[in-house]
Amino acid sequence: MKPLLDVLVILDALELEKEGSFAAASAKLFKTPSALSYTVHKLENDLNI
């Protein structure tokens, strides 16, 4: 069974909120800004927002 929301996706979104920018958050998460943007977009779609 697939979890409703992936914990790592939520943690990425929280890091983005904490850092305030995709560039800063992606650097801390060792991801590209576009990968983080994709993750946040997927989370928004999963939450229907």
From TrEMBL:
Domain HTH lysR-type: 3-49
Transmembrane domains' residue ranges: none
Source organism, top-level taxon: Bacteria
InterPro entries (UniProt xref): LysR_HTH_N, WH-like_DNA-bd_sf
Pfam families for this protein: HTH_1 (PF00126)
Sample GO molecular function, one term: DNA-binding transcription factor activity
Protein name: Transcriptional regulator
Source organism of this protein record: Salmonella enterica subsp. arizonae
